[in-house]
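Milestone 3.1: sequence recovery, worked example.
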């Protein structure tokens, strides 16, 4: 590699490791890190860092890892994952035709087929690089935590943060929402059913999913418990999925996840809300859905990368990273209940 001249002593070159040696007004580019000597100033690009510290074994561990609450499953439920490049375009649905386009598809002799278009404005997106690092003191190594335990802790923390963002987007789809009282004088499931019907009228498609917060779920149980009739008794013993199917949905999921909001305090990510919406697995970026979880796959097609970097004589840094962007791609047909018990 030829030497580069610069007035600042800094040189940039394409490729891997590019150490710089200051020689007055010259900067010599050394192609091999083995030529480094004490006192040299060196730059390293991302590709070289990845190859040096990427841990295939720990990355494979993230693929099969499931935390006790399976936060990834809840996240994928409300925001179906869609693989994309770092920069991409996607459609934002602004009317019901984005969800359904009833057409007469019969072609008359001598004419072409009728055209169907995906309506809605086009937005530019870019997945954000997110991650966390844990520094392990070698005096802890093996005695307190394993490397897999560290990675699982980091992955769970990232997922919990990601779920908070996802539920925030979900709740904002119907920003004001509709007030509902779940009490012994009301029929909670019928109040949810009314929102399902309203969602269908708005979008033209019957919603297929619902997420209910634990507080709202407990209000439902408290409302049904004192009602002395067979319907209330049967409803009291239903699971969230059974309630969803009774309402005509594919499923309903209960959100009971927490996050640490202060040193001693914890807060529910979703509390007293019920949201009905449209979502499907295996989406492409322009398929109809109220909310999507865009992610940029790794080289192996997964969602995560893990790095293991030895730092000095006493420390090891473990980093878990991913690229994602959670977007509400359409507010049409999403309905929210703000539930109280009085």
């Amino acid at each position: 590699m030829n030497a580069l001249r610069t007035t600042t002593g800094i040189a940039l070159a394409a490729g891997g490791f590019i150490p710089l040696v200051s020689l007055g007004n010259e900067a010599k580019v050394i192609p091999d890190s083995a030529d480094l000597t004490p006192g040299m100033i060196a730059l390293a690009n991302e590709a070289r860092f990845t190859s040096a510290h990427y841990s295939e074994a720990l990355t494979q561990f993230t693929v099969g890892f499931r935390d006790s609450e399976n936060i990834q499953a809840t996240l994928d439920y409300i925001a179906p994952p869609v693989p994309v490049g770092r920069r991409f375009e996607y459609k934002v649905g602004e009317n019901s035709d984005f969800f359904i386009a009833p057409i007469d598809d019969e072609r008359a002799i001598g004419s072409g087929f009728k055209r169907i278009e995906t309506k809605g404005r086009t937005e530019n997106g870019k997945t954000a690089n997110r991650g966390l690092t844990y520094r392990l003191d070698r005096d802890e190594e093996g005695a307190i935590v394993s490397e897999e335990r560290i990675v699982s802790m980091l992955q769970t923390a990232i997922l919990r943060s990601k779920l908070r963002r996802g539920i925030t987007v979900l709740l904002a789809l119907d920003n004001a929402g509709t007030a509902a009282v779940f009490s012994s004088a009301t029929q909670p499931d019928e109040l949810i059913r009314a929102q399902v019907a309203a969602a269908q009228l708005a979008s033209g498609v019957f919603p297929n999913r619902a997420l209910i917060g634990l507080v709202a779920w407990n209000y439902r149980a408290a409302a049904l418990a004192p009602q002395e009739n067979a319907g209330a008794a049967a409803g009291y013993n239903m699971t969230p999925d059974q309630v969803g199917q009774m309402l005509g949905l594919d499923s309903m999921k209960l959100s009971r996840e927490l996050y640490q909001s202060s040193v001693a305090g914890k807060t529910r990510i979703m509390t007293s809300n019920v949201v009905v919406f449209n979502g499907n697995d295996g989406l492409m970026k322009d398929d109809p859905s109220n909310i999507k979880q865009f992610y940029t796959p790794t080289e192996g097609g997964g969602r995560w990368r893990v790095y293991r970097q030895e730092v000095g004589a006493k420390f090891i840094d473990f980093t878990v990273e991913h690229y994602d962007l959670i977007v509400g791609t359409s507010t049409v047909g999403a309905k929210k209940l703000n539930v109280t018990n009085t």
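Confidence is low (pLDDT under 50) at residues 1-27. The two ends are 76 Å apart (CA to CA).
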